[in-house]
């Protein structure tokens, strides 16, 4: 028992995680590429062109296959950010803060993409690029939280202090996630506008649902690639004075 | 094929969405790759400078 704990903590050491992440990146990249190809093929060739029913949609609804996965990733990556920030604050593990720092830019990109693709869908479906309704506004606040984390972190020079300050911001901002979720999956349609309709997985056309889920898987795999690449750079910079980084750089120079 | 591109007349909206996603994600990967290489090169230069001082 004691031994296995020791083993687990070994992976929390930057020196162990750096090569491990390097080995995993090509696998995640291959999975992301394959899933994007399958997902987009399915999304554009195996789905109906138009949808009838209570919410009629023309071809523009195909924005869903990037919009919903990007919006999901914007929230999940925030959970990753706040989770690793919390672990960093409680256990004082260096790698957790590095993971939090590495997650933020990718999360901000997905939040921006959710807003951007939502604007193009909104223009076609609702006739407006933007509306100050709860869903759109709360997603915009999430974007500002990501930007705020980056700004706060870069404003404080001492990395240990900036890690802790921005971790606290990330945890406080966690309150936005249920707000976004409930403003989209509105429990009472009379209380919030029914623009985003409460969509149940079981009532969706299976081809649409599967394309969307495969694209979500693709974006998860992409996120692992981007976050691991970024955390490797952060590890190198922060551990530049250690023996293992010096040995690694010497090996790279010899190649 | 032209059906795929025109998307029933909504090509601008559909491809603006996918295009922005493609551009941002590719740019992110390119930037990350450059950043990693730049850091390795800089640390290598610093080490050689340190080694040079040591030999004097």
Keywords:
heterodimer, A: 255 residues, Four Helix Bundle (Hemerythrin (Met), subunit A), B: 56 residues, mainly alpha, 2 helices, 89% helix, rod-shaped
Describe the structure.
The complex is a heterodimer of chains A (255) and B (56). With 255 residues, chain A is mainly α. Chain A has one domain (28-254): Four Helix Bundle (Hemerythrin (Met), subunit A). Chain A is 75% helix and 0% strand. Chain A has helices at 2-10, 14-45, 64-91, 94-125, 134-155, 159-173, 176-184, 206-238, 243-254. In chain A, α2 (14-45) runs antiparallel to α8 and α5 (134-155) packs antiparallel against α7 (176-184). In chain A, 38% of the residues are buried. Chain B is an all-alpha fold and 56 residues long. Chain B has a domain at 22-56. Chain B is 89% helix and 0% strand. Chain B has helices at residues 2-6, 11-55. The chains are: A mainly alpha (255), B mainly alpha (56). The A-B interface holds A 44-45, 49-50, 58-60, 62-63, 66-67, 70, 105-106, 109, 112-113, 116-117, 120-121, 123-124, 222, 225-226, 229-230, 232-233, 236-237, 240, 245-246, 249-250, 252-253 and B 4, 7-10, 13-14, 16-18, 20-21, 24-25, 28-29, 32-33, 35-36, 39-40, 43-44, 46-48.
* Largest sheet geometry of chain B: none
The total beta strand count of chain B reads 0
Percent of residues in helices of chain B = over 70%
CATH topology of chain A: Four Helix Bundle (Hemerythrin (Met), subunit A)
Biggest interchain interface, per-side counts: A-B, 39 and 27 residues
**Biggest pleated sheet of chain A:** none
Number of strands of chain A: 0
Number of helices of chain A: 9
Please identify the oligomeric state. heterodimer
Quick description:
The complex is a heterodimer of chains A (255) and B (56). By secondary structure, chain A is mainly alpha-helical.
How do the helices and strands line up, and which of them pair or pack?
The complex is a heterodimer of chains A (255) and B (56).
Chain A: H1 2-10, H2 14-45, H3 64-91, H4 94-125, H5 134-155, H6 159-173, H7 176-184, H8 206-238, H9 243-254
Helix pairs in contact in A: 2-8, 3-4, 3-6, 3-8, 4-5, 4-8, 5-6, 5-7
Chain B: H1 2-6, H2 11-55
